[in-house]
Amino acid sequence: MSAVPPLSDPFAPPANSAKPRGKPSVLGRQWHALHRAAGAVAAMAGVEVELDSPAISRFPEAVLEVQGWRRSLAEQGVADLAAVMEPGLNALISVHSRGGDAHTPARTLLQEFAAARDALLVLAPGPGELH
After folding, report:
1. Is residue 40 within 8 Å of 89, Cβ to Cβ?
2. Are 33 and 10 in contact (CB under 8 A)?
3. How does DSSP assign the chain, residue by residue?
4. pTM across the whole model
5. Which of 49, 61, 90, 100 is 20 to 30 A from 127, comparing alpha carbons?
6. Could you state, in order of their start, the residue ranges of all structural domains in the chain?
7. Exposed, middle or buried, 70 (CB in 10 Å: 0-12/13-18/19+)?
């Protein structure tokens, strides 16, 4: 028997979710994949980063409830963040695999991720804000 616990499904809804949900949206899958990538970057940086607050968990669902510029900007922002994280993570993996020190660039990428993510969170309405 393995001592390593199985990895959870990165696209599954949070365990504390009382509201039944349907199939995850594309935005939701991208959002959760970004946070999995940020977790890997944080591990390389040797730091912790908040990846599962209520606002972070609710973001994809909340954004899909709004229309117009806020939704468009949020969707574009998630795509832009993915466009930064993918090559950044690939570069960090390359440096690490060659025995290089990836701590400082990982911290920098993580700071950029957190700043962009926090800016996106502002676009999502809070609970009850749409009613």
Report:
1. yes
2. yes
3. --SSPPPPPTTSPPTT--S---SPPHHHHHHHHHHHHHHHHHHHHT-------HHHHHHHHHHHT--THHHHHHHHHHHHHHHHHHHHHHHHHHHHHTT---HHHHHHHHHHHHHHHHHHHTTSPPTTTT-
4. 0.77
5. 49
6. 26-121
7. middle
Residue indicated by tokens 């920098």: 108
The tens digit of pLDDT for each residue in 25-80 reads 899 999 999 999 999 999 999 998 888 899 999 999 999 999 899 999 999 999 99
CA dihedral sign, ordered 114, 111, 14, 37: positive
First to last CA, the chain: 51
Alpha carbon distances (Å) from 2 to 5, 6, 40, 41: 7, 9, 22, 25
- Give tens-digit pLDDT for 97-117: 999 999 999 999 999 999 999
